[in-house]
Amino acid sequence: MAKRVTQGKAYSTLSRTRSSLAQPRLIAPAPATLSERVYSAFKRDIVHGFFQPGEALSEKELAHRYRASRTPVREAAVRLQNDRLLRIVPNRGYFVAQITLSILNDIYEFRVAVECAAAELAAAKGAATTEALKELTDLAKTRCNPDNRGSCARFIEADTAFHVGIARLARNQMLVRAVSEARSQMERIMLAAVDINYFGELPGREHLAILAAIRERDTERARQLMHDHIMQSKDKVLGVASILPVRPSTR
Hints:
Layout: H1 2-26, H2 34-47, E1 56-57, H3 59-65, H4 70-82, E2 86-89, E3 93-96, H5 101-125, H6 130-140, H7 149-169, H8 173-195, H9 204-215, H10 219-241
Helix pairs in contact: 1-7, 2-4, 3-4, 5-7, 5-8, 5-9, 5-10, 6-7, 6-9, 7-8, 9-10
């Protein structure tokens, strides 16, 4: 119970941060239908660690939590299974997806493909305004105190805002969507690392170097710096993956 309360407080911190920092750029308009609202809330709870990897979830309890009937919960569960955040086991229920090495490798291969392209396009198009570059620079300078989960949560939100912001500079909505979806998995991984009192070296210097290349319209350097940044992140994450929270698989 105490752990769930702590996670609830952390979730509140993340929600406030998302509203003050990331919402203008990253969050789509509020879901219009009950099904969309349940999906969004259920997804947030998984990403931000309210539900833990491997945890079994009752459809009845989920319906109560999201103040909905079972039908929108089932619809959300199918979408979250497609997002690789949930497993549906026939006649058994729902289980939060584990963070596996296979998933981690898929995420990083995907990130290299889309984010390097985004950085290159951002530099090639040269559409970044002074205001946008300043905002991204401020995000790149965000710091966290490993002993303060709230400050780490704010850093993670800033990291998401930075990477999606680079995609926005590319002026390609498909890239923006792709990067945003990948960040759901990244936030989940980074928050899990905070929960086990591990938080790697902050990438502020790498972010600033990427921005400099974009500002100077150096496409090759922007792409290479983003590639190096993502691969360094991969090395750090794989180093801690073996001690991320995992529960026995239920079949």
